[in-house]
Every structure is written in structure tokens, then in C-alpha cells.
Amino acid sequence: MSVFTQQILEDIENLPPEMQAEALDFIHFLRSKWIRTEAASKLRASNSGEAVAVMAEIAARATAFQGIDTPEAWQREVRQDRPLPGRD
């Protein structure tokens, strides 16, 4: 483990739990930013067939909707939580 990584870990360990959670969220943000930047540079250097492969790779790394097993069931559940105006 690098000295830089060790320093980050020590600093995070000295934070209260709610700040540790915020630090983790920020790390996830930075990682997704890095993935987008990496993909953009690959897209500029590739042709259209390779671009599709790069986009598929990015989609495979995404974790935003990992907790949703079936999109249809999730959509029904979300719509049940809020009544639509003018509809019974």
C-alpha cells in the first residue's frame, strides 16, 4: 500500500462515522468521474464499433441501479407511492 493511500486511510479513520460515509460518497463520485473521463478519451481515439464496446464496458461498471432486480416492479412501486392528480 502506498504512503498516500495510508495517509488517506488514517485521515478517514479519524473522522466521525457520518463524515466517513460522506468521504466514501465522494470517493465513488471521483471514481465515476474518472471512468467517464477514461471513456471519453477512448471514444475520441476509437471508431464507432469500438465506441459501442466502450459504452457497454461503462454500463457494466455502473452500480447506480444495482439494487433494482426488475425495472418493471420498481416502476410500479414508485408509482404507487404517489397519487397522480385527477386519477383514482
Could you explain the architecture of this structure?
The protein is an all-alpha fold. It is built from 4 helices and no strands. The protein starts with a helix and ends in an 8-residue tail after the last helix.
Roughly what fraction of the amino acids lie in strands? under 5%
Order of helices and strands: HHHH
Structural class comes to mainly alpha
Q: Report the principal-axis shape.
A: flat
> Count the strands?
0
Helical run tally: 4
Distance between the termini: 59 Å
Uncertain runs are none
The Rg value, from CA coordinates, equals 20 Å
Helix share bin? over 70%
Please summarize the sheet with the most strands: none
- Average residue-wise pLDDT: 80
Summarize the entry for a quick read.
With 88 residues, the chain is mostly helical.
What's the arrangement of secondary structure elements?
Blueprint lengths: L2 H11 L3 H29 L2 H14 L9 H10 L8
Helix pairs in contact: 2-3
Keywords:
0% strand, single chain, mainly alpha, 4 helices, 88 residues, flat
